Amino acid sequence: MRIRDLFIIWLLFWPTVSMAQESSSVMEKVDKTESTHVWDELSEGLEYSLRFLTFGTCRKVADSSQNPNNDFFQISRYSTDLEIRPDLRLTFRRLDLSAKPRMNLEWNAWKDGVKEGDTDWDDDWFVNEWLARIQGTENLFVSYGRENLQWGPSYLFSPSNPFFGDNGRSNPKQEVPGMDFARLVWLPVISWTISLIASMDEGRQEFFYYEFEKTYALKLDYSGQEAYASMILSHQEGDRNRLGAFGGWTATDALLLYGEGTISKGTNALYPEMANNPFEASMDAVYDKDSSLKGTFLAGGSYTLEAGPTLTMEYVYNGSGYSDGEAEAYYRLRQEASDAYYLAGPIKSLSQLTLSQTADPRLRFLRRNYIMFQYNHNDIWDVLNLTFRWTQNIDDSSGQFISIVECFVGDHTQLFSIGSVNSGALDSEFGSILNYQWMIGLEYAF
Amino acid sequence: MNIKFQASGFKCTVLCVILFSSLLFYIKPVLAEISPKEILSKADEARGNVEGVEWEIKIESIENGRTQKRTLKITARDFNSLAEFLSPPKVKGRKLLMIDRNMWFIKPGLRKPVPISPRQKLMGGASNGDIASTNYAGDYDATLVSEDRVNGERCFLFNLVAHNTKVTYGRIRYWISKERRIGVKAEFFTVSGKMFKSATFEYENNILMQGKPKPFVSKMVITDAVVKSNVTTMNYSKVRIKKIPDSTFNLNLLVR
């Protein structure tokens, strides 16, 4: 565990300990009832939970141009993990403190590529999330901490969120790494909320191919009798302003309708473009200075059947995604870079740079049209949760199937299985990285 | 013999007319004093629809021979409720936020709140809407059907018809105690008119409202209309009237 993380935990819970010590040391001097009251408040405001997770994962790497012979990503075939996840929280008067320290022990085995036959043990000690929040007035809150800020009603992804691309719903057992935020939340009336949010540090998020840049956002939330809506205006340093929004409507007791989207002038996403280099193309931010509006919109709805299951459908139009021509150029460039990956000299560096750009062209989805269907049924016989999700890339006909099965054994133990199977050609979005991945494991909650 | 029978039939008819008329005369002044909506509002108060209240529910559900248990802490104000799952450990930390008809489900470890519909089942025969404070006065049109007795207690029997399709139940037959102004029994019907569950209520808890003690629900027993052995019992305890700030029901502050 890093010294900074230990310091954070100490800083967070020091006031509790010191207050507790203080309260016990002054017990004899001050009115006993009052001290007992403080102590009672402290113990009443302290909450904690502890979960142990152990799981094994098996994955089959796709032999695509993005990851030649698995030498670019070097993804292991098998892995096993043990994670200890305590959650601590203290609410004391106007102060709210929380911390989620984590311990992860992981074993990996490689069966493909340059690391074929290798095995490796790794341990990681970190604080995935922590928060210190103070209530200035009854309706004003100021906080700083490492958070996983998620919002919006959609399952597939949350285009209105300028901070996180992953909403954590494809694998609920893997926590989304936290990012450091300063936040001010003001509730002028119960139905309206105004938030000022600034991402101050990358925290646990990893930016492989780009530098972290601070992002500032103004978020306005409205909650009505049977509908809600939010608007998010954000600005990333060195980049552009973005306007995001989401809203939902409880149409009947069983039907929910919702939408989410974002719009900006131009985009910093990378597109294949003709270039004077051995590949005769490169990935460039072609629309960086463009003044035309680029938007991503999601429309969805879910219906709960009387028998219990909920069916959900979402459609995404990703205006920044590649057209057929751009996609063709993208895959051609990726193939060129892949072919040059094992060559010596400057072309190898160019190949690595190009593959890193094609791996993350700053697009959450590569193409323009997507549709998602989901079946979800929870608490079947009080022991079984089922989620099956199919995502179809309409433009290149590739798809992804995700199944999440959770089964409780007793009051503490849960067995789970999370699988994803990708279909499509090697030069398609979902067929590019993995053919399949399957995780099975056990969670024990105290 | 025939004359005797006719005479006794006439007497019966007269007696019935007198009884029915007196019943009408009796009901009319009561309803002139207080409207069905007001009676429903009073009954709603005893089921959580007050300025600010906190309580704990122990739910035990027997469904097809299988017993399930949950303990929840409910914080409610007007039509907004927050349900926090306290036990068993497998569900501890889950939260259900109900802001009027908008509902979100929050699972520990999964930071993104999931919007859910009121129809989604909480456990056994209890829907999400059942644990929240009720707003029958606002959600339904009430018509007085008749008077009835429930466990010997005289009750108004109301027929509640939903204003729209946004509520969990299309129609409710609701027995409200004439004396205590609290709902003691209910039958719930789907929009298609099929009865799918019934419930009885007890009020052993008390809350102080404007300095006066008022009864508050202590037990709700839900029985499946088809499989009578499927029973969900909700025991209410630790009822506390308190000031609930707006921030309790705010998603931006709730997910930690």
SS strand fraction of chain A: over 45%
CATH fold label of chain A:
Porin
Please give the largest β-sheet of chain A: 18 strands, antiparallel, barrel
Arithmetic mean of pLDDT of chain A: 90
CATH architecture of the largest domain in chain B: Clam
Blueprint of the fold:
The complex is a heterodimer of chains A (446) and B (256).
Chain A: H1 3-25, H2 32-45, E1 46-61, E2 78-92, E3 95-109, E4 119-137, E5 140-147, E6 179-189, E7 192-201, E8 215-223, E9 227-236, E10 241-250, E11 255-265, E12 271-274, E13 281-284, E14 293-304, E15 310-318, H3 324-339, H4 346-359, E16 369-380, E17 384-393, E18 399-409, E19 413-423, E20 434-445
Antiparallel strand pairs in A: 1-2, 1-20, 2-3, 3-4, 4-5, 5-6, 6-7, 7-8, 8-9, 9-10, 10-11, 11-14, 12-13, 14-15, 15-16, 16-17, 17-18, 18-19, 19-20
Chain B: H1 2-33, H2 36-45, E1 53-63, E2 66-77, E3 80-87, E4 95-99, E5 102-107, E6 110-116, E7 121-123, E8 126-127, H3 128-131, H4 136-139, E9 140-150, E10 153-162, E11 171-177, E12 183-189, E13 195-202, E14 205-209, E15 212-216, E16 219-224, E17 231-241, H5 251-254
Antiparallel strand pairs in B: 1-2, 1-17, 2-3, 3-4, 4-5, 5-6, 7-8, 9-10, 10-11, 11-12, 12-13, 13-16, 14-15, 16-17
